[in-house]
Structures are given as C-alpha cells and as structure tokens.
Amino acid sequence: MGKTNGGFVVVALISCFYLEFGTGADSITPSKSIKDPEAIISEGGVFGLGFFSLANSSNRYVGILYNQVPVQTVVWVANRNKPLMDFSGILNLSSDGNIVVLNGKSEILWSSNVTNSAPNTTTAQLLDSGNLVLYNDDSNGVNLWESFQHPSNAFLQTMKISTDVKTGQKVEIRSWKSPDDPSEGNFSLSLEPFNVPECVVWNNGQLYFRTGPWNGHGFIGMISMYNVYLDGFSLVADSKEKSYYFTFELSNTSLVMYYEFDPQGQLIEHQWDDGKREWLNPLSVLLNDCDIYGKCGAFGVCDSTKRPICSCLKGFEPRNVEEWRGGNWSGGCVRTTLLQCQNEGFLKLKTMKVPAFPDWLSTTYGGCEDQCKKNCSCVAYAYDAGIGCMFWSADLIDVQKFSLGGVDLFLRLPSSELGKIVLMLTKLINVSQLSGFLTLKNLLTKFEVYRFADKEKRKSKIIVITTVIPGVVSITIFVLCLRRWMAKKRGRKQNDKQKLNKGNAGAIFSRKDVGDNSIQDKLQQELPLFRFKELATATNDFHRTKKLGQGNTR
Ligand SMILES: *[C@@H]1O[C@H](CO)[C@@H](O)[C@H](O)[C@H]1NC(C)=O
Ligand SMILES: *[C@@H]1O[C@H](CO)[C@@H](O)[C@H](O)[C@H]1NC(C)=O
Ligand SMILES: *[C@@H]1O[C@H](CO)[C@@H](O)[C@H](O)[C@H]1NC(C)=O
Ligand SMILES: *[C@@H]1O[C@H](CO)[C@@H](O)[C@H](O)[C@H]1NC(C)=O
Ligand SMILES: *[C@@H]1O[C@H](CO)[C@@H](O)[C@H](O)[C@H]1NC(C)=O
Ligand SMILES: *[C@@H]1O[C@H](CO)[C@@H](O)[C@H](O)[C@H]1NC(C)=O
Ligand SMILES: *[C@@H]1O[C@H](CO)[C@@H](O)[C@H](O)[C@H]1NC(C)=O
Ligand SMILES: *[C@@H]1O[C@H](CO)[C@@H](O)[C@H](O)[C@H]1NC(C)=O
Ligand SMILES: *[C@@H]1O[C@H](CO)[C@@H](O)[C@H](O)[C@H]1NC(C)=O
C-alpha cells in the first residue's frame, strides 16, 4: 500500500518534470530548434537540455540538467556569462553550423564557435552521459564540439579534465560566482603535469589547493582519498605526447553521482538517494585551513590538529618571529644551521603531504636516498611505490602533517640537528626465535621518541628507545658485539659524560645508519651511552607526556 503510494508520488514528480522539459527528441538540427520553455531529453532520459532560472534570479539560462532526479540540478550552462533577460530565448543551429543561444532580438548570446564545413548536415545531440555533442556528416564520428570539453562547474562521469602541453589546450572546471549566478567565479580546477601530474585548484590564477601527485590509485596529498576505494578514477599520462587527463567512471551504473566545484573552490561529491529523493551527504574534498596552498610558508608544516596550526620543520625557525607569532605564517621558516653538503643525514617525517613541485625519478626504493645525498642541492626526498623517487631542491612549500596516509618525507639536515636523536637498545626478546641476518633494519622494529629534559641546557633532546625483535643472529655474535660495545663504552665513558653534560648528545644515529649493514658495523659506530636510570629520570620514567612519537622502521 505504502509502496504503491510512493510509486505514485515518483511518477507524479517525474511527469511534472517531464512536462516542464517536454518529451522532445535528443537532438537539435537545422530544421529543429527549441525555444523557452522547450527542451530536449537524452535518449535514456538521464539528462535534459533546456531553459531554466536559478532560485533567486529571474535570469534565464540554457543548460544541461539532470532529468532523472526531481530536484533542479544544473551540470552545464551555455550562456553562463550572458543570461537571457526574458522568456524569448531560442536555442538553434545557426547558418554557420554552430549551436547558438539567441535572445528575442535574434542577438547571439552564446555560440559553440567552431568552424563547420557542412552546416546543413549538422546535429547537436544530447547524450545520456550529459555530453552535448556537435557533429556533421563530414566529421566521421569525430565531434566538432563537445560540452564536456567546455565544462561549467560539474565534473561528470567520463568527462576528462585534461591538459595538452603541446597544443596548450586545457579542459578545466570553473566555479560559479554564487549559487544563483553561474557566471565565471574565482576558482578553476585543472590537471597540471608538473613533473608528476596532480590536480590543482586556482583562485584568480593563484595556486590555492593541490591534490598532491597521482600514484595510480589516488592523489597522495589528499587525506580524504586515503583508504577510500577510488571506484573507477584514473589519471592517464602520455608523457611522450605531453597530454594528460583525469576522469572517472563508476562500475555501479545505478549510482547517480557527480562532483560539483562550488563557488568557494570546494569540490563536492553529490550522490543521489533514490529512497530519500535528495542529494546525499555532500562530501567536501577541501577539508581544513591546512589544505590551502602554502599556508605555513616555505619550510613550514601545517597540522590541523595543533594550535597554532603552523610550525617550522625541524632545523628551521621563523623568518620573522613577530609575524609568525601574530599568525601570519606566509613568510615561512629559514634554516638554523646551513647545509654544508657533508656530515648530513635525513630526518624521517611520517604521514606527510608532499611539498609542491617535486623533481622525479622513476626508480625503486633504496635509490632515493643515495640520489638525494649525491646532489648537494637536494633538500628532501620521498618515495611512493606508484610514483618512484621525488626530490626537492628549492623551498619546501605546502607541507602538511596528516594523521594518517600521506608519505614519509625525508628531510636533509646537518648532523648537528640530527645528533639530537639518540638511539638506545633496551632489550632483546627471545633470541632463540631469531633467524637470518641481523641487520639494524630488522633490529629496530619499534622505536619511541621522548623529550629528554636536560638539566643544564634548555635545548631538548630526543631519545629513541628500541625494542629488539626477530631478526636473526646467533647469540654468540650478539654477545660478541655487546662485549665490544661495552669495551668501547668503558673507554669512552668520560668523554660521553662530558658530551651529555654539555648538552651535545654527540654523533649518533642519523637515518642513514638505519640501513642494511650488519650489526657489527653498526655497534662499532659511536653510540652515546646513557644509563637506563639516567634515561628514565630524564624522561620521567618514559612518561606518555614526554613521548614525542613512535614508529616502526619496517
Ligand atoms: C536559427 O537562427 C537563425 C539566426 O537567427 C535564423 O535565421 C533561423 O531561422 C533559426 N532557425 C530556426 C529553425 O529557428
Ligand atoms: C534565496 O534567497 C533566500 C532569502 O534571501 C535565501 O535564504 C536562499 O538561500 C537563497 N537561495 C539561493 C540559492 O541563493
Ligand atoms: C569565438 O572565437 C573567436 C576567436 O576564435 C573569439 O574571438 C570569440 O570571442 C569567440 N566567441 C565566443 C562567443 O566564444
Ligand atoms: C545548404 O543549405 C543552403 C541554403 O539553405 C543551400 O544553398 C546549400 O545548397 C545546402 N548545401 C547542402 C550541401 O545541402
Ligand atoms: C572573488 O574574488 C573577488 C576579488 O578578489 C572577491 O571580491 C570575491 O569575494 C571573491 N568571491 C568569492 C566567492 O570568493
Ligand atoms: C549500486 O548502487 C545502488 C544505489 O546506491 C545500491 O543500492 C547497490 O547496492 C549498488 N550495487 C553494487 C553492486 O554495489
Ligand atoms: C604577512 O607577511 C608578509 C611578509 O612576510 C606580508 O607581505 C603580508 O602583508 C603579511 N600579511 C598580513 C595580513 O599581515
Ligand atoms: C641536482 O638537483 C638539481 C635540482 O633537482 C638538478 O637540476 C641537477 O641536475 C641535479 N644534479 C645532478 C648532478 O644530478
Ligand atoms: C620464545 O619462543 C618460543 C618458540 O616460539 C616460545 O615457546 C617461548 O615461549 C618464547 N619465549 C619467550 C620468553 O617469549
């Protein structure tokens, strides 16, 4: 009973909508034009092309609307910058073979504006994809013009946001001025090849938001894409031809879904709920202040969970402390110690949004660090299995700390900065289970970082405590190593103590050492040794509040 009623409402709504749009054909030809309020409907009834007004405006526009949903949903506008002022509009094929919007005085408000060699045989057809295409008998299946190549503010399935570097042609999405004014707004969304292609939002021509590079599954600079199953999205890069496009096609054909690029430059996912008969939970892609390009300036890092959201990367300090304190972070940060291209290592920053404009090298893991180390102008690198190595040689801009997802960013720092990281092996678990080769990489399966309160110097230190788990080893080797280590320790005890007291934790353990070399090599290296008690005291018994973080080097 209820069902029958529901069905009736649906039928009523649909027929009401059809009435407005008419039940026309799907094409406009030289002999068939439409005038306000007529419309054409795509063959399967998915989209309609006709005249409409927006909520608080009497202006009339010609555009493409969803025909299968009973809520006015505009996905493309022809005369977006030149509205019709009354109900006398006409949409027809002009004598030169273009589809045109005319007003009552036969003035052309908008034209597809292409050269057409056979105007008499031209058809403008609205497809079920929402694409309005113009073709003639001569064009052999190639469209003279497509609305998909001149998008408004909607990103529909099978539409391609594209950039052709050779021809300079770009298909980009352009926001509306406001919800009731479809004229060109401040924001555009385009695909930028850079060295690794990514999508970018521009605000009046200024970079406003980056998705981060595409890795074959998603954009690595978008937290909202982390763990989301990206159904049917693809970025196709023909680097030889220098042409690129981004598109999507859902495998579930019964889903009605599209993206709207709103007047504030947010990309919003709309999904139709057939039961509730409304567009469901609009999902916004731009989530917080940190997503705005370069919020924290060069070498700043944005963390939306912190207050203030901006801080300087380790080894950097604000360029202008007053501005920075005042919440103007655009000046960014500068190095506290300049790089000398020697005695340097890499600091690992986890779950980061990669900085803008990476250099790129297609390679396998392991190579990135060496490549970066070799090149004195390289200040950071990152690796993603779907991309390869990314390097940065200039300012690091638009760095963000995510709570999950992102990539590990390795920041080049002088060892005087890295030296503040101290490593200590605390215990060895179940040696009897170990097999294979003991490498530090295996050894350091877990570490925790603590703030180390130094009595004499205010400069805080960081201690890494590791727990040793499977890896390998015959106990003998380990014991041997330990002995050697102890011997060294005894010899250096005095020295170490001085170092500690001076607040200079000493040489220690830069990232580079967490490599694949054998335990012997590693343990022979200078390790500063602290008594467990010392550490416990300094870190308040390894108290949670002193803990800066933890990780797993696997
Ligand atoms: C289309 O517009 C042109 C230019 O005003 C006009 O000459 C022609 O008659 C119109 N065609 C139709 C079918 O209305
Ligand atoms: C239309 O105007 C009303 C009242 O000013 C406002 O509440 C509503 O949001 C407006 N609608 C649009 C689409 O701008
Ligand atoms: C049509 O194209 C010409 C140049 O190709 C351009 O000057 C003109 O503004 C375009 N007109 C419209 C309505 O897009
Ligand atoms: C196209 O139409 C014009 C006038 O309407 C006519 O003179 C011309 O012969 C036609 N061309 C073709 C190829 O049909
Ligand atoms: C667009 O930019 C202009 C000029 O910068 C500004 O006045 C206007 O508020 C902006 N509109 C939106 C929706 O951001
Ligand atoms: C396809 O989408 C519809 C509508 O949301 C949903 O009811 C259905 O379960 C989906 N089918 C599959 C195979 O996911
Ligand atoms: C922020 O600082 C920059 C210089 O670093 C300056 O050009 C800009 O005007 C400042 N912005 C504000 C809002 O004070
Ligand atoms: C070092 O890096 C810079 C910037 O990425 C690059 O232009 C230069 O060619 C590199 N030099 C070498 C020797 O790889
Ligand atoms: C060490 O591993 C063996 C074999 O898995 C297990 O039986 C034993 O309980 C473990 N010992 C400890 C102390 O965990």
Automatic annotation (TrEMBL):
What PROSITE patterns does its record include? Answer: BULB_LECTIN, EGF_3, PAN, PROKAR_LIPOPROTEIN
Q: Extract the SMART domains matched here.
A: B_lectin, PAN_AP
* Highest rank taxon of the organism: Eukaryota
Enzyme Commission number(s): 2.7.11.1
Q: Which residues form the EGF-like domain?
A: 286-322
Pfam families reported for this sequence:
B_lectin, PAN_2, S_locus_glycop
- Per UniProt, which keywords does this protein have? Disulfide bond, EGF-like domain, Glycoprotein, Membrane, Signal, Transmembrane, Transmembrane helix
**SUPFAM superfamilies, alphabetically?**
alpha-D-mannose-specific plant lectins
Domain Apple, by residue range, is 341-414
Q: Which residues form the Bulb-type lectin domain?
A: 25-147
Query: Where does the signal peptide begin and end?
Result: 1-24
Instruction: Please state what the protein is called.
Output: non-specific serine/threonine protein kinase
Regions crossing the membrane: 462-482
What catalytic reaction does the record list? L-threonyl-[protein] + ATP = O-phospho-L-threonyl-[protein] + ADP + H(+); L-seryl-[protein] + ATP = O-phospho-L-seryl-[protein] + ADP + H(+)
